[in-house]
Amino acid sequence: MLKTFFFGILLGALAAAGALYALPAVDQAREASIVSVAPNGGNVEVFRINVPMDRVMIGTRDAARPLPPGLEWPAADVLASMHTEVFKIRNARDTVVGVGVRNAARGAGQAAVVDWVLHLPARGSLFANMEDAAGDGGRRSGTIRSGSREFAPLSGFLTERWVENASDDEGAPAGHIELVAAYVGRLEAPDGPDEATE
Amino acid sequence: MKFLAALLAGLLLGAASFGAVLLYNPLTSDRGLSPLSVSDAELITLNFSAVPSESIVYTNDGESLHEPTPGKVLQLWEAPIRQTSAMVTVMRDGRNRVAGLGVKLSSKSESTHLLHGEAIVDSVWYLYLPEHGSLFLQQSENYWRFIRDVAFPAWRSSANSWRGNWLGDLTAGPGALGTAAVSGGSGRVAGLEMAGVESLLVRAFSADTGLVSADGRLIIEFPEYEDVAATAQP
Predict the structure, then answer these.
(1) CB of A33 closer than 8 Å to CB of A44
(2) pLDDT tens, A14-24?
């Protein structure tokens, strides 16, 4: 019986180790990426944010109705010019796939800053710095400055546009923010100094 | 029947022993000195409260340890973001003055390997500091030491709580020295690539409600002057 007991200890330790090795501790739910190839190279992915249902936070000093209710925006002067929003992000199939942050700010005597961070848990995150003024059709362009994991080797562009809702359906959003990300691979310097100078 | 009982008792003891060895494995102890603590470069130090209820907004799936705040904030309940949390908080400089705003988005990572002492969280910070500009910090955090030294003792205690002083670096990558990658987006730091480290000081933790008293710190290292000059050249 003692032998069986010791065999059980060994088996229990091995089973615990095997379970920890084989079973994933974390398993993120994944949605298939909807990426198309752009005519002039690179890949394009479209995200959308339904407003107001996907808006998690509006952070600004002058908000008449703060979101979420009960939010107390800090009174510090350095945060006075900021307008920070947090959203849920949807893919082109209207499925929530991530969380996004948009920040707009203008310091005294400084150009306006508009930044986006898109965080897609199963894939990674990207950071884009937008132009201060919107262009044709209310479309604002920006440059993808950095990314993590899947987006780490990519650069490219991000555009944002407000699209008003045309449908009369009850419960339809007031509109949506359309984000179009165009990814291209980063240019790598050729190996070796000789090749780089040729 | 006696043999079956002995086998079952052995199985349970074996699994428990393995758990204890895993938890107190000295090979997964602290790596020691922070890689940025010996840097000669200019550093930005940012302090923030790590207690979710003291942040401006904190949200998650609504069923995790920390409760969303304010109470009516939209929760991240959809499957792809259910293991994600978002925190918006005030960042203070070394003199405890408000330096700007920080937004942290964290997700449990599939690269977690408990067998290797890795409880990984993939997180990004968006920082807007009017004095410097906007920054994006991306990192893998390892919470294994925190679980071993704080969360597990709290769970085991009869009061379900832990008190003391626990200080540790959470950042474990992607930098080779276990540092976070920081990119400047606008202002003085536009275009700069930097390194950073996030650390946590815990004074009280409850197994029922999470962090009770804790402060976080982000240290961001500017590149050396030569690197800045090279980056700034067209």
Answers:
(1) no
(2) 888 888 888 88
- Whole-complex ipTM: 0.89
Confidence check: pLDDT of B224 > 70: no
Question: B80 contacts in A (CB within 8 Å)?
Answer: 28-31, 95-98, 120-122
Least confident window among B15-24, B46-55, B84-93: B15-24
- Give this prediction's pTM: 0.90
Which residues 68-97 in chain B show a CB within 8 A of chain A? 70-74, 76, 78-84, 86, 88, 90
Structure tokens belonging to residue B110: 């599939």
Contact A4 B124 (CB under 8 A): no
B13, B22, B80: residue with CB nearest A97 = B80
Q: Which of residues 168-197 of B touch A (CB under 8 A)?
A: 174, 181, 183-187, 190
Q: State the pLDDT at residue A197.
A: 42
What is the torsional sign of CA B51, A114, A141, B180? Answer: negative
The pLDDT score that the predictor gives to residue A86 is 96
The answer to whether B220 and B139 are in contact (CB under 8 A) is no
Residues of chain B positioned with their CB less than 8 A from the CB of A7: 7, 10
pLDDT-above-70 percentage for chain B:
93
DSSP state of B75: P
How many beta-carbon pairs under 8 angstroms link A with B? Answer: 224
Nearest to A29 by CA among B227, B84, B5, B94: B84
Which residue spans within chain B are E strands per DSSP?
43-49, 57-59, 84-92, 98-108, 120-129, 133-142, 161-169, 171-173, 180-184, 193-206, 210-221
Of A15-19, A45-49, B61-65, B194-198, the one with minimum mean pLDDT is: A15-19
Output Rg (C-alpha) for chain A, integer angstroms: 24
What does the block give as tokens for A37? 């190839």
Asked if A180 contacts A46 with a C-beta cutoff of 8 angstroms, the reply is: yes
Closest CA to A128 of A141, A138, A137: A141
Cα B29 to its chain centre, rounded Å, is: 17
Minimum-distance CB partner of B6 among A1, A101, A121 = A1
Positions in chain A short of pLDDT 70? 107-109, 186-198
